[in-house]
Design goal:
- By secondary structure, the protein is an alpha+beta fold.
- Helices cover 67% and strands 9% of the residues.
- It is built from twelve helices and five strands.
- It has helices at 27-50, 58-84, 88-107, 111-128, 131-148, 154-241, 246-274, 281-288, 307-327, 354-363, 372-375, 380-390; strands at residues 295-299, 332-339, 343-351, 394-399, 403-411.
- It has a five-stranded mixed sheet, with helices on one face.
- A hairpin with a 3-residue loop joins strand 2 and strand 3 (343-351).
């Protein structure tokens, strides 16, 4: 808040905090309090006018007192407005006028109005202005009242003014303390609201991340398997329309059926991973490479991996083996899983047999090109590279002199 300084307030010279001007923070309560004060003030003024002594001169005194009351009310409103705007000189001028009105009210015979005009501004100004200004008004108004009474009762008036000043000072301290508590409560509510917003944002981010993860699984499993099946079945349909050999068509259908079975197994594995059920990675890799006769090597001390890291290892191995089936069937395949202190490394390498390498070299046929790693259905190794980067790891896929090598490194 603009009225809250960095250092402690000095109530004698500083203006009060804006939120300490009113006793209640509720606007409704303040309005009700204003109406109550207005009614009480009206009663006091009526009594002050009616009970003016003076015999035959009483009507003239009442007229003069009525004009004085109008002046007092206008000056009091102006003093309050200027105090709320923190304009010191206008406030001091208005208080000087009110101090003079104290003496005039006493001379007109309305001691009740004079005493009220002595006490009320003292308490009010301690709430609205620096305390020293209320002290100055106390001295001026008390002196004016004593002079109007020709020195009589000065000790009573002085004691009454001092009591009002003390009450106003203590009341201001109470309001400042209440305002400080209100500020602390407001700050706490704001902090809780900000914390709730942060929690909601975090929950929304987690939900979006989970949706993205599920979307990747659906794409990797279903889109990969179904697109391959669709390609085989479409080829079989075209061959049937052209009257091709039944054995050739049957082979395509059998391959599509095998892909459907593999897709079903992969879907179950993906669902298990989404539920947090982690199967042993080594046995999973052995099952994946069984068709290709892959050699699976596990180095280091096996330990549980996080759900995302474990799933990334399975997905990269699956994509690498899929590329080998497409472009390097018949090559020797090695799957190496290394557990290190802070990382886990997966390496999938295929090597052509010696005769095949010589025949490939003589016929101009090379090992799978780098584009093969990123051009297949589904995410391909490009998608796996993105998955590795999300987990803070790296993925390297490139041809070698004997075949193709995929290397995944993930922090654990």
């Amino acid at each position: 808040m603009p009225d809250m300084p960095a250092t402690r307030r000095h109530v004698w010279t500083d203006w009060p905090a804006a939120d300490a001007v009113h006793r209640s923070a509720s606007a409704h309560v303040r309005r009700v309090g204003g109406w109550v004060r207005a009614v009480l003030l009206a009663l006091v003024l009526v009594v002050a006018i009616v009970k003016v002594p003076g015999g035959s001169a009483a009507p003239l005194r009442r007229v003069a007192l009525s004009g004085l009351i109008v002046l007092i009310l206008a000056t009091s409103v102006a003093a309050r407005q200027m105090a709320l705007k923190r304009r010191l000189l206008p406030v001091a001028s208005a208080l000087a006028v009110l101090a003079a009105c104290v003496a005039v009210a006493q001379l007109l015979g309305s001691e009740l109005l004079a005493v009220g005009l002595l006490c009320v501004p003292i308490v009010s100004m301690t709430h609205l202005a620096p305390v020293w200004l209320a002290v100055a008004y106390t001295g001026a108004a008390d002196a004016a009242l004593v002079l109007a009474e020709a020195g009589r009762g000065w000790h009573v008036f002085s004691l009454l003014a001092g009591a009002c000043l003390l009450v106003g000072y203590l009341s201001r301290q109470d309001r400042e303390a209440r305002a400080a508590v209100w500020r602390l409560l407001a700050q706490e509510r704001a902090a809780r609201a900000a914390e709730q917003i942060a929690r909601d944002a975090q929950a929304e981010s987690a939900a979006l991340n989970e949706r993205a993860r599920i979307a990747r699984e659906i794409h990797d499993v279903l889109a990969h398997s179904l697109s391959a099946q669709l390609m085989h079945l479409e080829t079989a349909r075209l061959l049937l329309e052209r009257g091709a050999d039944a054995g050739e068509v049957t082979e395509l259908v059998v391959n599509a059926r095998r892909m459907a079975q593999e897709g079903l197994v992969e879907s179950r594995q993906a669902l298990s991973a989404l539920r947090g059920e982690q199967l042993p990675i080594a046995s999973t890799l052995a099952d994946m490479g069984g068709e290709l006769g892959a050699e699976v090597c596990v180095e280091g001390e096996p330990r549980p991996l996080g759900g995302e890291a474990s799933h990334a290892v399975r997905r990269v191995a699956q994509e690498a083996l899929t590329n080998i089936r497409k472009y390097a069937r018949g090559h020797g395949v090695t799957i190496r899983l290394e557990y290190e202190r802070d990382t886990v490394r997966l390496e999938v390498v295929d090597r052509a047999p010696g005769d095949d390498r010589a025949r490939d070299a003589g016929s101009g046929i090379s090992t799978p090109p780098a584009e093969a790693a990123v051009s297949g259905p589904g995410y391909g190794l490009r998608g796996m590279r993105e998955r590795a980067e999300i987990l803070g790891g790296t993925l390297d896929a490139r041809p070698t002199g004997e075949g193709f090598r995929v290397l995944l490194e993930l922090p654990v």
